[in-house]
């Protein structure tokens, strides 16, 4: 029973991180003022959740956490409002 719960928590946390990473900026849940702290905390929790769910499969855990971080960063480049290179300060925008 505990195994199933930990597996569900691990995959649900990955689904939530995916939603938070790819949703429009105004729909994104914001837990702190620093996005860097949010990213570190989210992926640390994701790693912990997958470690708890798959204790004997550290290679799987590392690949899921690292690969999901890389894939989500690449997918964010496809959304126009999510990455820093396209965000222009308001005082520098052309109207």
What do these coordinates show?
- This protein is mainly α.
- It has one domain (about 1-25, about 30-85).
- About 60% of the residues lie in helices and about 0% in strands.
- It contains 3 helices and no strands.
- The chain has helices spanning about 1-20, 35-55, 60-75.
- Helix 1 runs antiparallel to helix 2 and helix 2 runs antiparallel to helix 3.
- It is globular.
- It starts with a helix and ends in a 19-residue tail after the last helix.
- About 5% of the residues are buried.
Topology, please?
Elements: H1 2-22, H2 35-53, H3 58-76
Helix pairs in contact: 1-2, 1-3, 2-3
Quick rundown:
The protein has helices spanning 2-22, 35-53, 58-76. The protein is mainly α and 95 residues long.
As a whole number of angstroms, the C-alpha radius of gyration is 16 Å
- Termini, distance in Å? 58 Å
Order of helices and strands: HHH
Number of strands: 0
Low-confidence stretches: none
Tally of alpha and pi helices: 3
Strand content: under 5%
Q: Mean pLDDT across all residues, rounded?
A: 81
Helix content bin: 55-70%
How does the helix and strand content classify structurally? Answer: mainly alpha
Tags for this entry?
mainly alpha; 95 residues; single chain; 0% strand
């Amino acid at each position: 029973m505990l195994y199933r719960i930990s597996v569900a928590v691990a995959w649900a946390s990955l689904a939530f991180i995916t939603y938070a990473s790819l949703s429009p900026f105004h729909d994104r849940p914001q837990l702190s003022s620093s996005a860097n702290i949010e990213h570190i905390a989210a992926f640390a929790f994701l790693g912990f959740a997958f470690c708890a769910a798959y204790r004997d499969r550290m290679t799987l855990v590392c690949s899921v956490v690292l690969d999901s971080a890389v894939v989500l960063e690449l997918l964010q480049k496809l959304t126009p409002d999510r990455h820093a290179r396209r965000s222009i300060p308001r005082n520098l925008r052309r109207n």
